[in-house]
Amino acid sequence: MTQIHVHAPGLLTTVQDLGREGFGPMGVSPSGAADPISLRVGNRLVGNAEASAALEMTLLGGTFSFPDGAVLAITGSDFSANLDGVPVELWTSLRVIPGQTLRLAHTRSGARCYLCVQGGVSVEPFLGSASTHILSGTGGFAGRALRKGDVLAIGPEAGSFRKRKLTEQAWEYLAPRKVLRVTPGPQADWFSESAQQAFYGGRYRVAEESNRMGIRLEGPLVAASFGGKMITEGVSLGAMQVPDGGLPIILFVEQQTTGGYPKIANVISADLPSLGQLRPRDEIRFELIGWEAARRLLTEQEALLASKELLAE
User: Fold this and answer.
1) Exposure string (b/e) for 68-78, b if CB count within 10 Å is 16 or more?
2) Phi and psi dihedrals of 36, rounded to 5?
């Protein structure tokens, strides 16, 4: 069986696919790729189904070898990848000959990159998904981040190698955003006009304490009226909770499934992949849009991902 040998794991490298939907009532969040667009495009580049499992690296990449060779693509942020010392082009498929070594350094742009291999990373599914859920220690490879000496299996190749790359037009449209578009949260009317003006008019910085569970923000305070106390209710990916201190937290891919803080806004589905590329100290701001505009943007994004204009050969 074709394998990936881990010589250095990087800072936080995990197996991820598109997550496990439908288990929120059981208290299990979806997990999955923090930047699902990069995962989906990477899988398309190597001829996989879009939801195939890959390796997600955060801030610092790893070193991997392929004893039997492989077809792979690196997507997401620029981690200065090289194959036996030769730079690897992002968003492009390539064939690795047996014994070659892939090295990735620290990020030069966003937060995460993805190593997609033809056949996908093969691990035992948990609740129908290969994704690693770090907080609960389930899924992925032994329920944890990769370590030096790990050996991962690759599924059977789907076909012959075809060199593909993401088109410039598609990249310009799909590139991560620092102005995140949002719709009103369920408790938006709990926040005064001045609090909302501070929220939408201000700039926020991503806090060092951010992780796959939530992205903590530093910036203008937006405390809800009467202290923001409420009965716990279900929460969604991208919801912006405002706890007692008044600093928003964006719920991320390993979020808790319920929460008892008011939500001022929710990041739209089309911009959720941009959350996965936010690094500590990055500055962002928010733009309020309507429901129909949010639906239109997601429809346009999905149309591009399904179109012939996505990849070139």
Assistant:
1) eebbbbbbbbe
2) -65, -25
Structure tokens at 138: 């389930």
Write the pLDDT tens digit of every residue in 185-199.
999 999 999 999 999
Average pLDDT over residues 149-165: 91
Cα separation, 20 vs 163, whole angstroms:
31
Nearest Cα residue to 20 out of 262, 254, 227, 216 = 254
User: CB neighbours of 122 closer than 8 A, spacing ≥ 6?
Assistant: 1, 53, 152, 153, 154, 155
pLDDT digits (tens, 9 = 90+) for 241-298: 999 889 999 999 999 889 989 999 999 999 999 999 999 999 999 999 999 999 999 9
User: Does 109 score more than 80 pLDDT?
Assistant: yes
Looking at the chain, the number of H-run helices and the number of E-run strands are 5, 23
Pairing of strands 283-288, 179-184: parallel
The structural domains of the chain, with segments of one domain joined by +, span 3-164, 179-305
φ, ψ of residue 99 in degrees (nearest 5): 90, -10
Q: In the CATH scheme, what is the code of domain 3-164? A: 2.60.120
Among 176, 180, 175, residue whose Cα is nearest residue 285: 180
Cα gap 40→18, rounded to integer Å? 8
Superfamily grouping for domain 179-305:
Cyclophilin-like (2.40.100.10)
Exposure letters 244-273 (e unless 16+ CB within 10 A, then b): eebbbbbbbbbbebebebbbbbbbbbbbbb
- Encoding tokens for residue 27? 């208290």
Q: What is the pLDDT of residues 92-102, one digit of tens each?
A: 999 999 999 99
* More confident: 313 or 4: 4
